[in-house]
Amino acid sequence: MEFKFKTIRENVTAQIVEKKSKFIANMFYVETIEEADRIVKEIKKKYHDARHNCFAYILETGEQEGLLVKYNDDGEPSGTAGAPMLNILANEGLSNVLVIVTRYFGGILLGTGGLVRAYSEAVKEALNIASYVEKTKGNVVEIEIEYNDLDKVKYYLKQNNIKIVENTYKENVILKVEMRKEQLKEFTNNSKNMNFKIINYNILEEKNIEI
Question: What gap in Å lies between CA 207 and CA 1, rounded to an integer?
């Protein structure tokens, strides 16, 4: 069974105002803890004059340990910001998503219930404008072919929903493509039986790719 997960297609920003407090939700697609932590630091620097920068994220490992989660209330009363934000991401079935909600205090206390609602609404507002994709574990692969095989290879890639991300024309044609694990296995196992010749192929990196 192919491993896959739901995530956001692009980063989004949304904003709500609750009793003069401004809540800015920035939502990011992330792949590693290091990337998430770096973005949190960047947002805190960007909104350095804000009272709070609360965050939550879910990362899909693709391994037996499953999901990695983390959240932080950044000075708000415990359980009023990070945890509700995380719950919304989880209830939407999202992975590899980081959301940071920045609060500019408006002078009116919201209480614990009001904070939970405000931080939750800010995340929901971001989700309302986000678009979604399914991703799976894959590889970026470099394929070298002859010029007279180019049309055949492009047809094969299109029929198998394999994305070409870069073309390089030298002595031969070099195609950089994104393949799911299953596609790469089929491609390498059947390359001798195809109606075109693969001069060489090279796996450049592992990457989460769109299905």
Answer: 18
CA 18, CA 27: separation in Å to the nearest integer?
20
Q: What are the tens digits of pLDDT across the range 89-134?
A: 999 999 999 999 999 999 999 999 999 999 999 999 999 999 999 9
The Cα 139–Cα 151 span in angstroms is 22
CA–CA distance, 146 with 122 (Å, rounded to integer): 53
Architecture of domain 137-210: 2-Layer Sandwich (3.30)
**Fold entry, domain 5-130:** Ribosomal Protein S5; domain 2 (3.30.230)
Average model confidence (pLDDT) for the chain? 93
Residue 114, classified by CB atoms within 10 Å of its CB into exposed (0-12), middle (13-18) or buried (19+), is middle
**Cβ proximity of 28 and 97 under 8 Å:** yes
Distance of CA 135 to the CA centre of its chain: 9
User: Residues 175, 142: contact at Cβ < 8 Å?
Assistant: yes
| DSSP character at residue 105 | -
Q: In terms of DSSP bridges, do strands 97-104 and 21-29 run parallel, antiparallel, or are they unpaired?
A: antiparallel
